[in-house]
Design goal:
TIM Barrel; 3 domains; 38% helix; Double Stranded RNA Binding Domain; 16 strands; 18 helices; 8-stranded parallel β-barrel
Length: 528
């Protein structure tokens, strides 16, 4: 089995995504997680560009990695200076990482119009930069920026830039589709042509501007690249970078390449969600391999076939990457969701039993009242447990109150108070916010976190309201869907009522109780 080196750039390229701003502590936590999952290289940032990255590398000297090699990033040395004189290189060496990655110009247009130097001087810059770093006993990864655009415009010069890095001792030559505008067939053909001219191993670094970063990375591997650079969840500037979450899945499961250690593949989903949680950017439900809906089945025909042979509607077992199969409750699915959900709860329900019929009748009554469990799997699991008398609430409500006010300044303001009983203790909590639902959420969590500390690791990621019968105008029932997420998973809950606050409360309570129920299955998480 051929081995593909996984080079993660989440801490640098990923931090360039709009809406992402990692703290130093965030970067250390993510580095630990990436090391745990078994990626081969972790690019930590550019120590010469900002104090945050400099501090990160200083902290990492006290946080030795067990599986990955840490890399510091920089450019080739400045024109007009020797590498030994460049302040960036002093910071690069001071980071004391075993690996350094530098990028240089491959496209003659960039050399002339951006770097503002001659083509020969650019070759000298590349060679001097690599040779200096090799002289400092570093493993050197050379990123050929804009390589594919450069090759298409001037192939001989683009190759000369790689040859300059190779001759100077670069350990890995990485071909970058920096603008993300190259097609898979072009990638394949160009990598093959480069492979025939060079001896150094090749890597690939693609961007997702055509939604082809994964396909382009796979084409490059097929053509001979042995290292793939990318970010978890595809975080990155503009449309993002190549998504390692998907690439690792495809290389490992479909193309028979060795990527992560076999024992670590089942951590793929957990790692992706952990990084998503730190970045505060939710994982897309439809994300391949790791997404909430990646192995979700709705149609009764599909569910029946899956029961007989899982391969009927799944190309791979979800457990391989830490995911799980879901059967979506809807009018299309009949009694099968009850049967399968009960099986996941280590219970057996026969599809033709009175229990299954009673549960289907209860579900239909709920749907008639406006509930929709198709998009609220967490509420459905709680519904199942309650129907089967297998559920005990984590707390009981004595009462809540919500007060809203419009201030003279024009600002809206809300305050919520909550009275509950939890583990034999009566708890009172109050909180305020710009909106009543968030105030309620805060007040409830404040009352519960002392008893259930893992609640601090979850947060709401989406809130949707739908009016069910518009003819009733402001007295109409509303359906509230709340999506929540923690470091390991995402889930959705539902509430229905004529009062939007009551509907929201129901969905909030389900969300919190599902989180606590989930943590009960993993005692290690409950202790956090």
């Amino acid at each position: 089995m051929n081995r593909i080196c996984i080079y993660d750039t989440t801490l640098r390229d990923g931090s360039q995504a709009e809406g992402v701003s990692f703290t130093v502590a965030d970067k250390v936590k993510i580095a630990r997680k990436l090391d745990e999952v078994g990626v081969h290289y972790i690019e930590g940032g550019w120590p010469g560009s900002n104090p945050k990255d400099k501090e990160f590398f200083a902290l990492m000297l006290k946080e030795p990695l067990h599986n990955a090699r840490l890399a510091a990033f920089s450019s080739t040395r400045r024109k007009g200076l020797l590498a030994a004189e460049d302040p960036n290189y002093k910071e690069l060496i001071a980071a004391r990482t075993p690996v350094v990655c530098i990028f240089g110009k491959s496209w003659d247009m960039h050399v002339i119009d951006v770097l503002r130097t001659t083509l020969d001087d650019n070759l000298a810059i590349i060679a001097d930069s690599v040779a200096f770093l090799k002289g400092k006993k570093r493993e050197v990864v050379y990123d050929a920026e804009h390589f594919f655009d450069g090759y298409k415009h001037n192939p001989e010069y683009a190759l000369k830039t790689l040859q300059a890095a190779e001759t100077a001792g670069a350990d890995m030559l990485v071909l970058c589709d920096t603008n993300g505008g190259t097609l898979p067939q072009e990638i394949f053909e160009i990598v093959q042509a480069v492979r025939a001219r060079l001896k150094a191993p090749l890597g690939i670094h693609t961007h997702n501007d055509l939604d082809l970063a994964v396909a382009n990375s796979l084409a490059a591997v097929k053509a001979g690249c042995v290292q793939v650079q990318g970010t978890f969840n595809g975080f990155g500037e503009r449309c993002g970078n190549a998504d390692l979450s998907t690439i690792i899945g495809i290389l490992s499961a479909k193309l028979n390449y060795k990527t992560l250690p076999d024992s670590k593949l089942k951590m793929l989903k957990d790692t992706a969600f952990f990084i998503s949680e730190v970045a505060n950017l939710p994982v897309a439900d439809f994300h391949p391999f790791i997404g909430h809906s990646a192995f979700a089945h709705k149609a009764g025909v599909h569910i029946d076939a899956i029961l007989k042979n899982q391969r009927a509607y799944e190309h791979i077992a979800p457990e391989l990457f830490g995911n799980h199969r879901r059967f979506i409750t809807s009018e299309l699915a009949g009694k099968m969701p009850f049967v399968m959900k009960a099986e996941q709860m280590d219970l057996k329900i026969d599809k033709g039993s009175d229990t299954a019929k009673a549960m289907l009748k209860a579900l239909q009554d709920k749907e008639l009242a406006g509930y929709q469990f198709e998009g609220a799997d967490a509420s459905f699991e709680l519904f199942m447990k309650k129907q089967l008398k297998k559920y005990s609430p984590f707390f009981t409500l004595e009462g809540f109150r919500v007060h809203t006010e419009k201030k003279t300044t024009g600002d809206a303001w809300a305050e919520a108070t909550v009275h509950i009983e939890v583990k034999g203790h009566r708890q009172f909590s109050a909180a305020d916010s710009v909106g009543p639902v968030e105030a309620l959420d805060k007040a409830l969590r404040n009352a519960l976190t002392r008893f259930y500390p893992t609640l601090s690791s979850m947060h709401l990621t989406d809130y949707k309201v739908r009016v069910l019968d518009t003819k009733d105008a402001t007295a109409a029932k509303v359906r509230v869907l709340i999506e929540s997420q923690d470091e390991h998973d995402a889930w959705t809950t539902v509430g229905v009522h004529e009062n939007i606050i009551e509907a929201s409360w129901e969905a909030l309570v389900d969300s919190i109780e599902y989180k606590l129920l989930k943590d009960l299955k993993s005692p290690r998480r409950m202790k956090k």
